[in-house]
Amino acid sequence: MLLRATFTPIFTAIPYKSKIPAASLSISNAFLNNPLSVRENSSLNANATNQNPLLPPTSAYVHLPFCRKRCHYCDFPIVALGSSLSQTEDDDPRIANYVQLLCREIEATKVASNNNPPLETVFFGGGTPSLVPPRLIWSILEALRSKFGVCPDVEMSIEMDPGTFDTRKTRELLDLGVNRVSLGVQAFQKELLMACGRAHGIDEVYEAIDIISSCGLKNWSMDLISSLPHQTPEMWQESLKRTVESKPTHVSVYDLQVYTRGVPPAF
């Protein structure tokens, strides 16, 4: 099956009131020459995430690893689909096959009992989850509902990049229950976006903000990166100003740290 030999789906069920587990087992298995089967991988996930069987999961993180291209600073496990991929692409077999395997992993995940509380939060991260067609997001949600149940007032978040969605796709995602968007802007300067290898331009940033606003979504966040190469204090001040003007409900700032391969950063 396509992707079977190169990438293992990553799904993590997070126990109630426990620390978020490291996904190192799933991520490392994703790059083995002989990746584990769905059931074997789910057993590893169960050991890593359900250390206390008395604590049922109330949150789920779903990794959707697809991007148009790899940004220069990125070391996440992703699959680069190509910059020519349309934001309305609906038949890419790489995405469809991955989602099929992901749903099988959810189905094979062990649960402590049949009386667990439903999920309170679901987070679709990546990668660029907004590249995944809404009908496939629906398939994942149906698998989660069937296995764990989902609260009626669940907080459902999805990471989206400018240039990978339009008004129609956004409304379809909202209709599925998505009620929070994390928008990966990173910078408001064309030269910085190009320098760090982002697939979108400044015009797509403003278009994405307008789409979110026009769809009436109130709960959304914006991601920015500080300490980018050639980023001046004036550029950073401009990005902060544009961010405030956009009126997101939350802002996440990630400080870029560059270190030599094999030498971890000092904390």
Automatic annotation (TrEMBL):
GO terms for molecular function: catalytic activity; iron-sulfur cluster binding. It holds the Pfam family Radical_SAM. InterPro entries: Coproporphyrinogen-III_oxidase, Elp3/MiaA/NifB-like_rSAM, rSAM, rSAM_horseshoe, rSAM_sf. Residues 52-267 form the Radical SAM core domain. It comes from the Eukaryota. PANTHER family: COPROPORPHYRINIGEN III OXIDASE, RADICAL S-ADENOSYL METHIONINE DOMAIN-CONTAINING PROTEIN 1, MITOCHONDRIAL. This is Radical SAM core domain-containing protein. It comes from Nelumbo nucifera. The lineage of its organism: Eukaryota, Viridiplantae, Streptophyta, Embryophyta, Tracheophyta.
